[in-house]
Structure formats: structure tokens, C-alpha cells
Amino acid sequence: MNLLHLTYAVEVARLGSIRKAADALFIAQPNLSRAIKELEADLGIPIFNRSFKGMEPTPDGEEFIGYAKRILSQIDEVEHLYRDKGKRPAPQKFSISVPRASYIAHAFARFSRMINADTAEIYYNETNSSHTISNVLSGEYNLGIVRYAKKFDVYFKNMFLEKELLNQVIRNFHYVLIMHGQSSLASQKVIHLADLNPYIEIAHADPFVPSLIFSTIKREELPDTIKRRIFVFERGSQFELLSHNQKTFMWVSPVPGELLGRYGLVQRECVDNTKEYEDVLIYRKGYHLSKLDRQFFSVLGQVNDPPLEE
């Protein structure tokens, strides 16, 4: 089997006739007929049913023609890519997998205004720490930001060492509460954990720590003191819920004031919450940060948190 035979089979299937395909391919009809028979012999299946109406693919033939079309299409893509590579500038590339954090998204929006090249390929993915690590290890994304409680630092650092992932802490923080500006919770001068019990928590529910079982982490990150939760995995939908339901709240890393104002939300401390978290940059050993990478982290460092409500 060769690529030329694949082209012949696809053309016969398209036109439904050896004669028409031979004319389109500018080859003799007997030669084309012989090539199709040789291809069928190599594969051990009949590709076409032959009748007075012409050539119609068999069920196996239809499957084969589908594969043949994809193979020929991929060959065209590769030829186009490398034939034209020297004629056009290489695109700027940036790819990062991050937690669902508003300050990171806010920085990314600002960073997007700095991309002024004629060609650019930018990939931004919000997901949990487990998927971010997989995305970076597979090479699908060059950069990742992993979020975890500081008490689990040793578990993550051991895994980074084992997987040869370079890492750097980019932010330390503790979670704060956000809620509707008119929520009765927002009017309290001091908020304790027990004050949250009557309210509905908006939660991610996708915690991850290497070498620890999910139930252990879940008890840590989602304590059973809260009886009502809505699990939402898309940050925009979380903010929509918070802005429409005054009975909801969410634990978050500090949110930029511009975003809070857009949704009519406020940000408050909880005096009982002392748990520290870290956002950690990871990338594969041997990867060198590009100009775009450095520009993004420069912008990320400039994003300021709003003052907390008194």
C-alpha cells in the first residue's frame, strides 16, 4: 500500500466510477483498476462493490476511505506548514493552565493588550491543580500555576522534584469571603465561621494533594459545618450566582476591585480563617521562559487587591 493508492481509492469513492476517476487523475483506466485491486489484495478486504451502476464502497471500504481521507489531509497540512514556514514569521506563543482565580484572569486580560505581533497563539486554561500538572507534564501547556494550602507544601514539592518540574511561589494569601453587596452577612462588622452556617456556599469541589486520598482533602477543604453548597466549576457562573442570590458566599483569593464592582460584590475577612495558601508557578525542566511569559508575570505582579470592607 502506498499514498498514491490511497489517493486513487478516495477519488474512485468520490466519483463512483473507475472511468471518471481515471479521467480526473489523468491515468489509464486499466492501470487505475489494477491499482485498486492491488490495494484490496494488500488490505485483505473488498473496498468497493462493483455493479453496472459503478463503484460503491463496502462497509469496510467506507471505514478505509475515511482513514485515507484523514491521512491525505494530514499530509497536506504538514506540507503546507513546512513549505511556507520560511515565508512567514513564527507566531508568538503563550500557554498557561491556572486555578480559577480572578486576579490571574484580570492580569491575563491586561496582558492581552500587549500582544501586538502579526501572528500569535495564546492558550489560557482554568482548571484544578491536578489537571494543571498533567497539562504541563504532557507539554500541552508550557506554564502552570498550582494552588494549594501551605500545610501541604511538602507533598507538592516532593512531586515537583520527582516529575522534574521547576517551581516558584508567586503569591501567598489566605482566602477571603465575597458576597452580594446587599447581603446581610456583608453588614456584619465581624464575621466568624459560625456566621456562615445559614448561607449557601459556592464551591469548586475539586481539591487535590499528591499522595493523599480525596476524602482526607475534602474534609480539610470542605468542612461539614456548611450544610448547603452549590458546586460550580466555571468562574463566570460563580459570580453570576453571587450577584443574583444574596444568600450565597464564596471563599476566594483576593479579587480585584474592578471585578467586585462589576458584579456588585464585596470582599470581607473571616476572623477565624487563618489557613495560608500558595499559588506556585510550574514549568518543565529545560523550558526557558519566553518574552511573552515574562510580560505576563510582570503584569500579574502589578495587579493589586482592593481594600477589605470595614
Mean of the pLDDT scores?
A: 87
SSE ordering: HHHEEHEHEHEHEEEHEHEHEEH
**Sheet with the most strands, sense and barrel status:** 5 strands, mixed
The Cα radius of gyration reads: 29 Å
Range of helix content: 40-55%
With strands numbered from the N-terminus, the spatial order across the biggest sheet is 4-3-5-12-6
Which regions contain 5 or more consecutive residues with pLDDT less than 50?
none
Number of helices: 11
Task: Give an overview of the whole structure.
With 310 residues, the chain is of the alpha/beta class. It has 2 domains: 3-85, Arc Repressor Mutant, subunit A (Orthogonal Bundle); 92-302, D-Maltodextrin-Binding Protein, domain 2 (3-Layer(aba) Sandwich), CATH 3.40.190.290. It contains 11 helices and 12 strands. The strands form 3 sheets. It has a 5-stranded mixed beta sheet with strand order 4-3-5-12-6, with helices on both faces. Strands 9-8-10-7-11 form a 5-stranded mixed beta sheet. Helix 1 crosses helix 2 and helix 1 (3-15) crosses helix 3. It starts with a helix and ends in an 8-residue tail after the last helix.
Short overview:
With 310 residues, the chain is α/β, with parallel strands linked by helices. The chain has helices spanning 3-15, 18-25, 29-43, 59-83, 102-112, 129-138, 153-163, 214-221, 235-244, 257-263, 291-302, and strands spanning 48-51, 54-57, 92-98, 120-126, 143-149, 165-173, 176-180, 200-203, 229-231, 248-252, 265-268, 277-284. The chain is 42% helix and 22% strand.
